[in-house]
Amino acid sequence: MEIFEVVQPGLLTTVQDKGRYGYQRYGVSVSGAMDGYALLVANLLVGNDEGDACLEITVLGPRLSVLDDTVVAVTGADLSPALNDGALPMWKTVRVCSGDTISFGHPKRGCRGYLAVAGGIDVPVVMGSRSTYIRSRLGGLDGRPLLSGDRLRRGKTRAEVSLKRLPPQYIPEYQAENELRVVLGPQDDYFTEKGIHTFLHSEYVISAQADRMGCRLEGPPVEHKAGADIVSDGIPPGAVQVPGDGLPVVLLADRQTTGGYVKIATVSTVDLPKLAQAEVGDRVRFLRVGEEEAHRLLREYDQTIDALRQYIRRSQSDIGQMAGTDDPAI
Amino acid sequence: MIYERPRFLSGGDRALFVEFGDAIDPELNRRVRRLLLAIQEAKLSEVLEAVPTYRSLLVYYEPRRISPEELRAKLKLLTQRTQAGELPEPKVTEVPTVYGGEYGRDLDFVAEHNGLSPEEVVRVHASKAYLIYMLGFIPGFAYLGGMCPRIATPRLPTPRAKISAGSVGIAGDQTGIYPAESPGGWRLIGRTPLELFHPEADPPVLLQMGNYVRFVQITAEEFSRIEEEVAQGTYRAKESPFMREDESGDI
């Protein structure tokens, strides 16, 4: 069923789900939502499966005509979403009707917003995923960002649509200064002691060369022992590559599957959304954690998600009381 | 160098590297492949995906189902058990290629750079089978080993903005095929009509790690015919069992 017509596509709006797994050994990048948390929450708020396809909206958002009555949720960066003439509240289930217009204004904080619609954005599944990978023209809408005139379809609604607002503890506040927890390796032994010290005790600035593939940082160069080249190996998400100029590059969703630069550390999974939302000029520091601590952080994240799922399930029974207000976010 | 024992290296909180050495070496590469096949055979449900390269296997796992210590122990055991194991017989995939002219704009440069005639460059390039060490960089791109140093040529100083899919090139002492149209700095010596990456196919790639590639010179007319068959989905790439002499080409 058709749900949106694209009036203006915005700067870079793509269809993304949780990513394309199982094909990296053929050279196919994972891609998927840069901010996995924001994607998951947007989907939960409209009754979707957690990894369903949403629109990932980059800095300047699109203008969409709504073609059918449904519910949507906008999460992630605050890019001033609007429903017709009023603000569209974020991190909430919002009812929209055929003929409405969803648009975005001035970006306030963060880089990437997520718009979920009940049933998920329906584009063909390519190698197990609907995610757009622009460089190889895979997935999404013919492997490209949205264009004016595109008509988007939605999938079958999975659950009875439930209307919720999210308690504040589940809504992240994106900061201009971030600490990124890292586990050292796989090639930390390719750096001098001084190099490791520089990496762990300096402030780095997000450069303008930051996209879905990776985030290049500016700051004090990290010293190698003897060059930056290695015999190519795989690249996990959050890998911090340090090429010859000594400036770290954190590799993200659209990273190449393999590469030949040394990798000093890997950013912990739970901190990757911070990078997805970091703006040019924002600052980061790397904090070393052990493998055990990194796994403890993952468990903590899982507990948060479990609590969130339960909250959303519970709140289904409250729909009756909340309906009937004038607030579009019920 | 091949390490005496594989090294287990951190890839963050969801992945770990099993590194067998730090060189480009067929035996080292076979060790990587043995572990990949062993993992696939053992159907480890905790392992989500494994990415083989020249010298290591990057193992993505589900940290909610297994601790890294347990996974390391399991992988160690699998490695020990399979170290001398048999691998499937490699196949040689023929890659029909038109050399020179509009198909390979840099053939004359490669010849001149190496003090050879263009015909000799073609003869050397097509004289042996190249081992596929790994796939990476972009979907379907095969890292091939063993090109004769007599035709080695440095990359272009400035990469071209657009290279056609199927272009066959040389970069330093490596040769390779561009699976898709992309920018690139390789010296182009020819072009194949074969499709190296096809998202709807299973597997989605023509060339597979552990097999070999042999370039076979064809004419422009044959190129058009094969291109047509590929477009219609009727073309089957020629494959043959790998023989020792396949690897010993013109030195």
Describe this protein's structure.
The complex is a heterodimer of chains A (330) and B (251). Helices cover 16% and strands 31% of the residues of chain A. Chain A is built from 5 helices and 21 strands. Chain A has helices at 36-45, 193-201, 272-277, 291-315, 319-322, and strands at 2-8, 13-16, 54-58, 63-66, 70-78, 81-83, 86-87, 94-96, 101-104, 109-117, 121-122, 151-154, 177-184, 204-210, 214-218, 229-234, 239-241, 249-251, 258-261, 263-267, 283-288. By secondary structure, chain B is an alpha+beta fold. Chain B has 2 domains: 2-82, Gyrase A, domain 2; 91-247, Cyclophilin. Helix content of chain B is 24%, strand content 31%. Chain B contains 5 helices and 14 strands. In chain B, helix 1 crosses helix 2. The longest helix of chain B is centred in the N-terminal third of the chain and has 17 residues, at 26-42. The mean pLDDT of chain B is 94. The interface between A and B is large, with 45 and 47 residues.
Describe, in short, the structure shown.
With 330 residues, chain A is α+β, with helices and mostly antiparallel strands. In chain A, 16% of the residues lie in helices and 31% in strands. Chain B contains 5 helices and 14 strands.
List keywords for this structure.
heterodimer; A: alpha+beta; Cyclophilin; seven-stranded antiparallel beta sheet; 5 helices; 21 strands; globular; B: alpha+beta; Gyrase A, domain 2; eight-stranded mixed beta sheet; four-stranded antiparallel beta sheet; 24% helix
Count the domains of chain A.
Answer: 2
Secondary-structure-based class of chain A equals alpha+beta
**How would you spell out the order of helices and strands of chain A?**
EEHEEEEEEEEEEEHEEEEEEEHEHH
- Content-based structural category of chain B: alpha+beta
Q: How many β-strand stretches of chain B?
A: 14
Largest interface: pair, residues per side: A-B, 45 and 47 residues
> Considering DSSP H and I runs of 4 or more, what fraction of the residues of chain A is helical?
10-25%
Whole-Å distance between the termini of chain A? 24 Å
Q: What is the mean predicted local confidence, pLDDT of chain B? A: 94
Envelope shape of chain B: elongated
Q: Going across the biggest sheet of chain A, name each strand in turn.
A: 7-6-9-4-1-12-11
Largest beta-sheet details of chain B: 8 strands, mixed
- Radius of gyration of chain A using CA atoms only: 20 Å
